[in-house]
Amino acid sequence: MHNEFTAIVERDDEWFVAYCPEVPGANGQGENKAAAIKNLSEAIDLILEDRREDAFRGLPAGVERELVAVG
Predict the structure, then answer these.
(1) What are the strands, taking DSSP E only, across the chain?
(2) Disulfide engineering: 28 pairs with which of 8, 39, 53, 64, CB 3.0-4.6 Å?
(3) CB 28, CB 43: distance < 8 Å
(4) Which pLDDT score is estimated for 21?
(5) For residue 57, is pLDDT > 60?
(6) Gap between the Cα atoms of 15 and 52, Å rounded
(7) Under 8 Å between Cβ of 32 and 46
């Protein structure tokens, strides 16, 4: 699945920090802008994976699951 999110990148002394306003709690850092964005991307992936797993816990037996493409 392909999704696009916003990365806000700021310089903090020798480090770059990035966060995503659309995914609360998703942030990354790195020694350069590219590394901070890559780290942020990995954080977003982990958060969304965890939220998906959490959402499926406790679903009633027999429910139907379908994929929905966005964008």
Answers:
(1) 8-12, 15-19, 27-30
(2) 39
(3) yes
(4) 97
(5) yes
(6) 31
(7) no
d(CA 57, CA 32): 38
User: What b/e readout covers 9-38, taking b as 16+ CB neighbours within 10 angstroms?
Assistant: beeeeeebbbbbeebeebbbbbeeeeebbe
Structure tokens at 41: 């991307």
- Amino acid symbol at 22: E
Residue, of 3 and 23, whose pLDDT is higher:
23
- Angle (CA) 64-54-56 rounded to 5° is 10
Maximum CA extent, the chain = 54
CA separation for the pair 47, 35 (Å, rounded): 18
Q: What is the pTM of this model?
A: 0.84
Amino acid identity for residue 8 in this structure: I
